[in-house]
Amino acid sequence: MTTVQKWTGRETRMLRHALRMSIRDFAEHLGVSERTVSKWEAGRDAVQPRPEMQAALDTALARAGNEAHRRFRSGLRLADVAELRQAAAHVQAERNGDTSTADVTAVFRSRAELSASLPADRILDGARKVRAMGLSLNLLCQHYPDHRWRQLIEGGAQVRCLFLDPDGSAIQAREREESFPAGQLAALTKLNIETMLRVRDRLSGELRGSVQISLYDETLRFNVLLIDDLCLAQAYLPASRGVDSPTFVMRRRDSATGLYQVYEQVFDSQWERSRQL
Fold first, then answer.
1. Which of 1-15, 30-44, 176-190, 239-253 has the lowest mean pLDDT?
2. What pTM, to 2 d.p., does this model score?
3. How many CA atoms lie within 13 A of 195 on its CB side?
4. For 62-92, what is each residue's pLDDT tens digit?
5. For the chain, what are the domain ranges?
6. Hey, which CATH number is domain 82-276, 3.40.50.800, 3.40.50.10860, 3.40.50.720, 3.30.870.10?
């Protein structure tokens, strides 16, 4: 079942749309005034309903039917991505006939900037297919709690995590390149692998196959996160730590052009050469 950690005007509006209610009907449904609902929606992320209304919204979502839940997840996930910075650049690329990068919807200069605009719960909640490769996969393992993973997988999600081998030579080379003490990145990666193994082990038997974990030991080039039709790709730059590297956000298009397919092929190729745990 879909859950919301903290309701804002953004989620409230998505719920109303998912329930296919007018502002008047939705206000009556919650027992508040139309003006209150309009105020929430106009404030988007900057407005949070009072605690008692947070509970009322939780109840309204819990009582919604399966189709409403599906519409809510679909509307929430990535609703803002198409409106993020560089939308104008996207349109201009289309006008110029340049479709090779037209699926790029945003660029963030650092991982902190990415996390502030697209936190883990916003991009992962409601996902059906999650594929990730990189070094330690901190976004998945440190910013998304175990119980949320369980809910996601019990809801039908399929997850593949591809970690850099903590006992391999490639991670040692990266530690030297980023000037980390020997073994520091390896220890973090082992911790994150244990996190995902714990998530998998706590699932019921038939669901454990929904979580696949693999290792690779090759030169680290990209951190790639594919969540349904969304792709976050971060290049590892020489002498620059991963948290300081830019991240590109892409959304898969109907056509075969664009960068989403490029990074999807990178993931698939690396996965085929990996060692599963």
1. 239-253
2. 0.63
3. 22
4. 998 888 888 887 666 545 444 444 444 454 5
5. 9-76, 82-276
6. 3.30.870.10
